[in-house]
Amino acid sequence: MDDTGVVAQRSKPVGGLALKFDRVSMVFPNGTEAALDVSFSVKPGEFVTIVGPSGCGKSTLLRIAAGLLNPTGGSVEVDRERLGYVFQDATLLPWRTVQGNVELLPELHGYAKDERQALATAAIDLVGLNGFENHYPKTLSGGMKMRVSLARTLTLRPPVFLFDEPFSAVDEITRMHLNEETQELFTNEGFAGLFITHSIGEAVFMSTKVLVMSARPGRLVAEFDVPFGYPRKSDLRFDSQFAELCGSVSEALRGAYT
Amino acid sequence: MSKTRTPTRRRQITLVDVAGPTLIFVAFLSFWYWLSYYGMSERRRFLVPPLHKVVQDGYLDWKNFSKMLEALWLTTQVAMWGLGIAIALGMTLAILMSQARWVERSVWPYAVALQSIPILALVPLLGILFNYSFNARVIVCIIIAIFPIINNTLFGIQSVEAGHHDLFTLHHTSRLTRLRKLQLPAASPAIFAGFRISAGLSVIGAIVGDFFFRKGDKGIGILLDQYAARTTTIPRLYAATILAGALGYLVFSVFGLLTKAIIGKWHEAAEVPG
User: Fold this and answer.
1) Of B156, B158, B180, nearest to B168 (Cα)?
2) Backbone torsion region of residue A165, taken as left when φ is above 0, otherwise alpha when ψ lies between -120 and 50, otherwise beta
3) Which residues, in sequence order, are CB contacts of A17 under 8 Å at separation 6+?
4) Residue B264: closest CA among chain A residues belongs to which residue?
5) Least CA distance to A169: which residue of chain B?
6) Contact criterion met (CB < 8 Å) for B170 and A66
7) Cα separation of B65 and B56, whole Å?
8) How confident is the prediction for chain B on average, in pLDDT?
9) Which of A189, A188, A157, A209 is nearest to A51 (CA)?
10) Are the Cβ atoms of A139 and B163 closer than 8 angstroms?
């Protein structure tokens, strides 16, 4: 680890991949086996979702990808200089307004004031929060906070986005809206996405590919390609093919609990 | 955490806000007058002079009143210097402690020790060491006021959410930037709470130092001591006591308002009465 606590390894992925997990294993010092021999990759333009039971080590994989954790085995290749990370909580700074929060990342990267203002304005625009620039987080709903969090990550236009169950704390309807918006951002911005969730509907609705992870120690046990094109409309959820795919993922997931 | 809040709206002052305290004040005054005229035996009645006598002797006699105000001003200066130095020193120590574990482990036992020594036990020593000077009084204030500053600043910095740290770690933030943009702002509610506690303590320190030194420049503590010594000055003792209390209340309120002005916009619990 270097001074800032980030794992120093920042090798860029080869072969046109956005992100590559190569036989990654993670055993915590207390003996907990969080991940076992996990290999997969995400190409540019792909949106890959990992579903799995709670506590199977899904989030651990993301933390490893981001360099917040060092794997005990295997390696990850990703460009960490330009990585977007959307946390499970909105992790907004309560003392900053929406504008101030969205400007944070360009600010940490040393952008000039007018530059970061422009980046923030554009990102706030993308998530539809115009008019809320001067609001403090405590006045926002859970869904709005998540939009601010998304906007904050969007400012730096990262080519790879990691999502750590970002919508698990909002109500079902808000979640569907946020799924649609995220899917729209993916369509328009063209980033590569790696999304963690335990909601099957969410996974199938947004992704190009769904991976199923087993209970601890987490292994990848199934893989589903999602055939629907983008942009996806909300009524895709009522499509019979959609329902069928959700059923298959569900079945694989049920097997993954044992 | 998904509660939606309406933007901060000034709370309406209700009848209870005015009538409640007024009622208690009237009841208190009645009891006081009852005590002055009927409650005490005639021999001991001088111990509780009626309020108008206190006002007359203490506040309407300009010679006495100006003396009290001068003393109070001196006490205020002592308390504010003490508080100011306690804040600067306490925050610096806490920040250093937050940056290196070994500093925390080395300094913390002494901070606790300083907090545990009864201040009254130290006052005579400080008096002879610093010749009962202004500085001696300020030092008493620093000793009594510094612990809440250290404790609250350190606690505040250490209570930063793990998710926020991850966010800053992901973007390769330097220690100084992390301190300035994350840890200190996050700690500010706790730090301001520490300021409020220490402000009150510092006033107490200034009066206590004064009271026990009985020497040097006359602060309100020395006057209290003198007024208590003779039966004829007992109304003035009441007057000076009320002034000292008012000073403590004022200082506490100022810091309450300061807290509200600086962090009230975003912090939920910043509604401080007074």
Assistant:
1) B180
2) left
3) A41, A42, A43, A44, A77
4) A95
5) B2
6) yes
7) 10
8) 89
9) A209
10) no
Q: What's residue A258's pLDDT?
A: 65
Please give the structure tokens belonging to residue B228.
């208590």
- pLDDT reported for residue A99: 96
Percent share of chain B, pLDDT over 70: 94
Is residue B183 classed as helix, strand or coil in its secondary structure? helix
How many angstroms separate the Cα of B182 from the Cα of each of A87, A186, B188, B196, B244?
17, 30, 10, 22, 39
Q: Could you report the per-residue pLDDT of A128-165, keeping only the tens digit for each?
A: 899 999 999 999 999 999 999 999 999 999 999 999 99
Tokens of A156: 């730096």
What ipTM was reported for this prediction?
0.88
Written as one string, the DSSP assignment of B12-61 is: PPPHHHHHHHHHHHHHHHHHHHHIIIIIS-GGGGGGS--HHHHIIIIIIS
Residue type at A53 in one-letter notation: P
> B5, A135: Cβ pair inside 8 Å?
no
Chain A residue nearest residue B3, CA to CA: A141
> Which positions in chain A touch B166 (Cβ < 8 Å)?
68, 85, 87, 91
Determine whether the interchain pair A6/B4 forms a contact, defined as Cβ–Cβ distance below 8 Å.
no
Looking up tokens 């933390």 gives: A63
CB of B268 less than 8 A from some CB of A: yes
Q: To 10 degrees, what angle do helices B62-99 and B220-227 make?
A: 130
Model pLDDT, residue A245: 94
The answer to whether the Cβ–Cβ distance between A4 and B173 falls below 8 Å is yes
